[in-house]
Amino acid sequence: MDIEVLRKSIRQDKFIIKTHAKQRMGLRGITLDEALKVILKGEIIETIPKPDLFPNVL
What we know:
The chain is mainly alpha-helical. Helices cover about 50% and strands about 5% of the residues. The protein contains three helices and two strands. It has helices at about 5-10, 20-30, 30-40; strands spanning about 45-50, 55. Strand 1 and strand 2 form a beta hairpin. The longest helix has 10 residues, at about 20-30. The protein is globular and about 25 Å long. The chain starts with a helix and ends with a strand.
């Protein structure tokens, strides 16, 4: 996953939060502002390979 591409999309307000993600954020008490702040300022500490196009990251 290219974190810089994701960050650029957020800065340009060119992203979509899917319904499922919104539901999970709500269950976990995470606001959109909190999630975006983590993406913009956090770091990837582990990449978990998956057989599809989008790896999981921590």
